[in-house]
Amino acid sequence: MFPDSEKNNVLIFAPYFPPRLRVGAIRPYRFAKYLSRKGWNVSVISIKHPGKELNETQKKDLENVSIYELAPPFDNTTTASKQTSSLRSDNSILTKIGDWVDSQIPTDTWLPFFWSKKKEINDIIDRVKPDIIWSTSDPWSGGYVIGKIAVKKGIPWVSDFRDPWTLCSVRFTEKGFFAQKVDKKLEKWIINNSDFMTFTSLTTEQKYVRYYNILKGRTTTIYNSFDSEIQETDSTEIRQKDTFDIYFLGSFRELSTAELIINTLSKVKEIDKEKFDKIFVHSYGDLTEQDLSLSIERGVRDRFITRDKVAFSKVQHELHNADLLLLSTHPERNDIVPAKLWDYLLAKKNILSLVQNPEVSSILESSNTGKQFDKKELNKAAEYILEMLEQKRNPNTSKSNRAIKISNFDAPNRALQLSKVLKEVIKDG
Question: Among 203, 255, 313, 359, whose Cα sits 20 to 30 Å from the Cα of 330?
Answer without folding.
Answer: 313
